[in-house]
Structure to design on (513 residues):
């Protein structure tokens, strides 16, 4: 029986990117692996779970892996080395044209649909491996402004540049989930990215050192996405790099929180995403309580969602940012003294006086006024004990740097107005609550008086009897006139209404699957 010949391999196979069974890998070895016959490819998988070893077989080291356990051997016939840019473009374009013709027999292909006039091109998860014939891209797709080459088989920045240099109108480039070899001379490639303002390099296994090494290629970059990389310690980019950068996302990187201040010198940075970075603290040591820091001078939008922030002194530090108007810190561990998550939002508003948006909700003027007045009353007793009518203690100023400013704005609290934090509503308190049914427009709004201690599962039991809908299919949330535009999920059946801080006058939204 004849044996199929091995496929012809590229001469530069080592280092090339390949696809196999839907996964991507980098070739680290080409050759025999005794005692078996024939040629094998030793590959390092992008997904380490696909691997079986570190390039070792029967005690022999054939190659090494940057990620432990991410290597294996595969036959050349099982992998694809990909095709050039225009081969993929023509295949997709012809399929797109055929689908449109099938949808409408009256469809006429006009100039706006032609490759020459395309402004966006999405080649996500396609096996593009390089530019192809020199100059052909410039002739075929000269007007592309936004290009998605995520999860491709391009293995070098030089090959990316060979494509983009022919797209002279290119402004946005997505390269998520690629593995790109560093260029030997990054400034030399800058002519390939002259007009690039948006770049996404999420999940590319990059370190901060590698990012800075590549930065000279992007002289006009304004928006950089680096989510899910291998960035831990940051360093100052210096006065020559990222001088035009306005937006930076470092989400899902295990950042050293002290090194975050290295970014503070970026002169135009307006938006910074540090969500899911394990952040628990930040300090601007150049400014005291109530003063403005010189760091991050134009930062307007800061995202600290899904972190480990539990102390209000972090918020006090953020109040030093002179330009901060939009802030999000959802899924952290900040708690108000009364345990009420609404009070937590009010404290954020009161402590950060310039905010216009908090946790994706616009702050209305009456909401800010209410939050600041409640803040004055909540800590009025502590203010008095700290010498508020004579000379405030340094500790109180550190904990409440805006308090004196708010007193100047609204006046000192009267003793009768001061309220001590209450843990929760009384268990026997009855709440007058409305029920609405967004999925059933014909059903009228209901009003019920329920004890604050009533658990969500019992509320669902009540609704089951009224609606004849199984309690397991009911999904409840509530809205409050005090927090217009925000809907809070009642996602734990064993918790009480008082746990969710539901008050009289609130409305429970009832939906079912």
């Amino acid at each position: 029986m004849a044996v199929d010949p091995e496929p012809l391999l590229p001469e530069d196979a080592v280092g090339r990117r390949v696809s196999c069974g839907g996964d991507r890998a980098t070739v680290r070895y080409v050759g025999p692996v005794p005692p078996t016959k024939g040629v094998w490819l030793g590959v390092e998988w992008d997904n380490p779970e696909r691997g079986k070893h570190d390039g070792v077989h029967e005690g022999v080291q054939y190659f090494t892996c940057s990620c432990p356990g991410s290597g294996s051997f595969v036959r050349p016939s099982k992998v694809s080395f990909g095709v050039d840019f225009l081969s993929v473009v023509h295949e997709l374009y012809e399929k797109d044209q055929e689908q449109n013709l099938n949808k409408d027999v009256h469809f006429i292909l006009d100039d706006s649909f032609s490759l020459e006039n395309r402004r966006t091109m999405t080649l996500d998860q396609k096996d593009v491996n390089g530019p192809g014939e020199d100059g052909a891209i410039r002739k075929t797709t000269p007007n592309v402004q936004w290009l998605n080459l995520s999860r491709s088989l391009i293995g070098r920045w030089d090959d990316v540049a060979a494509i983009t240099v022919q797209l002279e109108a290119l402004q946005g480039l997505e390269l998520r989930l690629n593995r790109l070899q560093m260029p030997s001379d990054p400034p030399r490639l800058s002519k390939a990215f002259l007009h690039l303002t948006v770049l996404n390099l999420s999940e590319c296994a990059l370190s901060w050192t590698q990012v800075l090494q590549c930065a000279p290629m992007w002289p006009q970059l304004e928006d950089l996405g680096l989510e899910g990389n291998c960035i831990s310690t940051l360093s100052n980019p210096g006065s020559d790099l990222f001088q035009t950068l306005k937006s930076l996302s470092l989400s899902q990187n295990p950042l050293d929180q002290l090194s975050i201040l290295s970014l503070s010198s970026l002169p135009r940075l307006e938006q910074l995403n540090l969500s899911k970075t394990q952040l628990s603290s930040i300090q601007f040591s150049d400014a005291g309580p109530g003063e403005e820091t010189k760091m991050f001078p134009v930062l307007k939008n800061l995202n600290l969602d899904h972190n480990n922030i539990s102390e209000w002194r972090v918020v006090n530090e953020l109040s030093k940012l002179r330009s901060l108007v939009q802030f999000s810190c959802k899924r952290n561990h900040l708690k108000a003294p009364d345990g009420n998550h609404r009070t937590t939002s009010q404290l954020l508003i009161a402590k950060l006086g310039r905010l216009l948006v908090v946790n994706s909700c616009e702050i209305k003027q009456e909401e800010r006024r209410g939050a600041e007045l409640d803040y004055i009353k909540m800590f009025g007793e502590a203010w008095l004990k700290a010498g508020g009518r004579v000379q405030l203690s340094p500790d109180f100023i550190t904990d409440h740097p805006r308090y004196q400013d708010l007193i100047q704005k609204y006046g000192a609290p009267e003793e009768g107005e001061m309220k001590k934090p209450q843990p929760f509503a009384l268990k026997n308190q009855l709440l007058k609550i409305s029920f609405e049914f967004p999925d059933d427009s014909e059903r009228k709004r209901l009003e019920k008086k329920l004890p604050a201690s009533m658990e969500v599962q019992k509320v669902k039991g009540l609704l089951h009897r009224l609606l004849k809908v199984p309690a397991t299919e009911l999904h409840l949330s509530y809205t409050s006139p005090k927090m217009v535009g925000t809907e809070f999920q009642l996602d734990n059946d064993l918790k009480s209404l008082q746990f969710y801080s539901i008050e009289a006058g609130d409305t429970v939204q009832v939906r079912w699957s």
